[in-house]
Amino acid sequence: MTESQPWPRIAVVGAGAVGGYFGGLLARAGAPVAMIGRPAFVEAVKKNGLFLDTLQFQEKVSVEASADISAARSAEVILFCVKTTDNASTARAIAPLLSNSALVVSMQNGVDNVEQIRSAAGINALPSVVYVAASVPEPGRVKHVGRGDLVVGPKNEKTERIAALFSRANVPCRLSENIEGELWTKLVWNCALNAVSALGHAKYGQIAGSADAWKVVEIAVYEVLAVAKAANIHPPGLEDPKAALGGALKIATQMAEALSSTAQDMNRGKLTEIDSLNGYVSRRGAVLGVATPVNHALYALVKLAEGRS
What we know:
Layout: E1 10-13, H1 17-28, E2 33-36, H2 39-48, E3 50-53, E4 58-61, E5 64-66, E6 77-80, H3 87-94, E7 103-106, H4 113-121, E8 126-138, E9 141-152, H5 157-168, E10 173-175, H6 179-200, H7 204-208, H8 211-230, H9 241-254, H10 261-267, H11 278-288, H12 293-305
Parallel strand pairs: 1-2, 1-6, 2-5, 3-9, 6-7, 7-8, 9-10
Antiparallel strand pairs: 3-4, 8-9
């Protein structure tokens, strides 16, 4: 995609922190972006625009906003950013709106979203790995505190289009031939930090600074790697468990001021994505005969804390 080419029409389905940040950067670069979100978000954006409060700039961005999923009709690129608990219902809702050439990109936590979307509605979504620390402190405002890069793959015409689209908006987007492994790399970090942040009401930096909390992180990381090994999945750069733990420490340090998405959901009284994180590792481990007591404990405790068992 060159600078002279017209931008594709983009729809963000699930305009929260991730969708708001990446969709907002695309809109800031000149792309026509329709954001589909909750009524409070839509009202705020229609009144005041979308405010991006990032590490690099603070700026109001003009985007189209709607609470109606039909706003995704005729979009050439759909950023699928809903919570994993809403995969099936959202996939079925957008399926009739998609053109044959539309590209749907899953920008979510977890490793099996593409399979869930395909199973629910026959949509062949593209997987992506999202690294960003962002939150929505109030409707229509996105607060960015760390990173902001993507991984897509494997390399083909569709993923190259997506990488070029984000690169044009100055969003780092890397192509990988081992996208399954990349998804599991992100799963390692999520399982290491998300539930601990939520249950401990702690920012990542506080977790990194607590020797006792870090013991929990260490065992959780080793368990996820053991499940990956049993499943013959190879998260790149994590062959050495000690290196994997070092990577978790690096993320916790880089994003020291971040609260996990799980913690943010719990603080707002919303259901979390724990079933797709530590819960997924627990279930997959049980099938493969790999013990995951710490991941299962974190999963069970978050479920109890959010009011369901």
